[in-house]
Amino acid sequence: xxxxxxxxxxxxxxxxxxxxxxxxxxxxxxxxxxxxxxxxxxxxxxxxxxxxxxxxxxxxxxxxxxxxxxxxxxxxxxxxxxxxxxxxxxxxxxxxxxxxxxxxxxxxxxxxxxxxxxxxxxxxxxxxxxxxxxxxxxxxxxxxxxxxxxxxxxxxxxxxxxxxxxxxxxxxxxxxxxxxxxxxxxxxxxxxxxxxxxxxxxxxxxxxxxxxxxxxxxxxxxxxxxxxxxxxxxxxxxxxxxxxxxxxxxxxxxxxxxxxxxxxxxxxxxxxxxxxxxxxxxxxxxxxxxxxxxxxxxxxxxxxxxxxxxxxxxxxxxxxxxxxxxxxxxxxxxxxxxxxxxxxxxxxxxxxxxxxxxxxxxxxxxxxxxxxxxxxxxxxxxxxxxxxxxxxxxxxxx
Amino acid sequence: xxxxxxxxxxxxxxxxxxxxxxxxxxxxxxxxxxxxxxxxxxxxxxxxxxxxxxxxxxxxxxxxxxxxxxxxxxxxxxxxxxxxxxxxxxxxxxxxxxxxxxxxxxxxxxxxxxxxxxxxxxxxxxxxxxxxxxxxxxxxxxxxxxxxxxxxxxxxxxxxxxxxxxxx
Lengths: 398, 168
Known about the structure:
The complex is a heterodimer of chains A (398) and B (168). Chain A has 398 residues and is mainly β. Chain A has helices at residues 4-18, 39-42, 172-179, and strands at residues 46-49, 55-61, 64-70, 81-82, 99-102, 108-115, 122-129, 140-141, 151-158, 164-170, 187-194, 202-211, 218-221, 227-232, 242-247, 257-258, 275-278, 284-291, 296-304, 307-313, 319-327, 330-338, 343-350, 358-365, 373-377, 380-385, 393-396.
């Protein structure tokens, strides 16, 4: 009997070790609820150049959402500045990552998804710095709905008037439909708007019913005071192609229009969302992923009513998670291709708004890697890529 | 007599030990890495089986799991291999989910390599991570891949083909 007790304790300790990879900084334990984190879950990061050309990244560090900055194009980085007062469980891998944006007065905005109790539930969190990133004010939850359900895949944009838009995937309507024994496809896209540099948010405004539940949303700044959103939709009965709509600062939204036409019939989660950007002539360029009946792989195209112009396959068969950015009529797309051992970071550039393209091999890694993001600075394109071996790497596109 | 008592005592101890460790043993979650599919195929050599990937973060996977459970109830001896494509750090949540779902006698595995792309590539280089994802291996291990919730009627047809092939 006496021998048994230590054994039981040892077994309990073993299982604790097996399910925890906590680091010293986790010991405050708030919101960690015994769940461990791993590399992939921590790799989600985004970055943006500020008006002075300093590169700022939002990422995860020892359980916290943090920002770091680099004044030398990613060669060296500041010590991380904490955005979250306590470590917390976040969606920071795969399709989810913290976002960073700058307000017209140099405000630094950060959003992320904090996990809630039940699987795939979450809440959209927001925090801002009004002192150039030295400190962050206490985070707030963006939406008014506080149910323990999916509010995930936050995305943020500032319109031309400096109003802040935050959009996310929300399952409240799907859950209400289930309770009422009604049918509902997927989830919904909601958004909120702040007119006071993120002090308060108006919302929750519904952009669209029937979005995919598990793919990132893309936002671009539109004309006037609008923002344009693109997301993976669930067109009846189960076609997971993309939709696009305009968000207005008064909380209204334009008509939901179909954006891509690949006919991907899927009762499942692609975990593979789009990106979009508009050019100097107001044309909308997009990249996305599909395994549809008509097309399979990663694609680029210009979106117009009722169809896609210049649609073309991106890279090789394994191309994944493309992103794009635009300078005038120049378009740059970056993506990754995994060959079983290495992830290759590749890019293609068009000097003529998507008519013709030149491909470039940028980098490789044998370590874990995040999805790439295309950035612009001084009329040049860069790719931000967070990998285990080279955290927050920045590679210029030739 | 003494040895009898010792055996009895040992039995008691092991019974107690089993009770103590029962929660951990209720779901036998095996570590799935880039070498696991080869082992699974070897274990089911010359026999058909279903390999199904799911995740606690995938709502349609719940529906898929219910379909797989009903198939398993109808064909209790047919091997169905469930693999949780979750971050290895979510192991405790995967176990909790599987305990609640009572998926026995399905084999249960979970990604044990945080390099998800590497594991996925070892299964199928064409697969880009959409879930649920299922593979139907016939006796010769020719496989049919399917993304999204499986159609129960299709599975029923496939199962009857495998059974008739086995009887020949």
